[in-house]
Design brief:
Length: 280
């Protein structure tokens, strides 16, 4: 399982997605972000996750171009994700939003395009647009974000194509057991955003004890826990030492007992909005 940083999982359409990527939520446009992308690629990352609402696709694109050039990589060697924001959910508007994201990123295609939030009455039209982009070969894989089981069931009633990924808040205080087992049953790959709960878990005593046993940091233990649950993870950071640290999770394994201990920390507690009750 997950032998190295460039290990991948085959999505339900056969496209290969790296287990670990870098997220750029709340990182502003500018040189810090460009350097973070370049640093991540230099240290072996091959997956980058952004979104229209982050307002940083231009810098992400610049970072990607410079990283490809400096590391002598082909575009195909990177896996790039973006997401359509709530105001653009609709058939034509989602198609237009995809073009806008591509233009800002300066890319010819995305590897994964997601519906960012399940806005009632709107996500089915947006999904039709994603299906169109996929059928036209404009995007390699399509999926959703922040969808609960009932959203997925509702979407799949009418969908021609099943989502390949569901990116959700997932960490030891929000273990999403039912959602994870539903996703596995339907061959939808779960992906964790905010895996470190925006830093709130980094001094948790149970996690510290496990980390000390392995000579690892709490962050490394949590990210390893994601992987052993077969959940893709995209920790956000711009600091080079964290980029390196977050990737050093392939040289140890948590025991079943340690996995159970971490699972037992669940409080169904979110740091982000509730997918059943948001107003944007």
């Amino acid at each position: 399982m997950n032998q190295h940083l460039q290990s991948k999982i085959a999505l339900n359409n056969g496209v290969q997605m790296p287990w670990l990527g870098i997220g750029v939520f709340k990182v502003e446009e500018g040189s810090e972000l460009v350097e973070a992308i370049k640093s991540a690629v230099r240290h072996g990352y091959r997956s980058i996750d952004t979104a229209a609402i982050y307002g940083n696709e231009s810098s992400v694109g610049q970072g990607i171009r410079e990283a490809l050039h400096e590391n002598n990589l082909a575009r195909e060697e990177l896996f790039v994700t973006s997401k359509v924001w709530t105001v653009d959910l609709g058939y034509e508007s989602t198609l237009a939003a995809y073009e806008t994201s591509l233009n800002k990123l300066g890319l010819a295609y995305l590897d994964l395009y997601l519906i960012h939030w399940p806005v009632a009455g709107k996500y089915k039209d947006a999904w039709r647009a994603l299906e169109t982009l996929y059928q036209q070969g404009r995007v390699k894989a399509i999926g959703v974000s922040n969808f609960q089981i009932h959203h997925l069931e509702d979407l799949m009633k009418d969908a021609e194509i099943k989502p390949m990924v569901n990116q959700v808040e997932f960490h030891p205080f929000l273990t999403q057991k039912e959602l994870l087992s539903f996703a596995k049953k339907h061959n939808i790959q779960l992906e964790a955003w905010s895996p470190l709960m925006q830093g709130q878990l980094l001094d948790h005593p149970v996690l510290k004890e496990i980390a000390d046993k392995h000579g690892k940091s709490v962050a490394q233990v949590i990210l390893r826990w994601d992987l052993q649950h077969e959940v893709i993870t995209i920790p956000k950071t711009t600091k080079e030492h964290r980029i390196i640290e977050n990737a050093s999770i392939f040289d140890f394994e948590l025991t079943k007992d340690e996995m159970d201990q971490i699972d037992a920390l669940n409080q169904n507690r979110r740091v982000g909005p509730d997918p059943d009750n948001f107003d944007f």
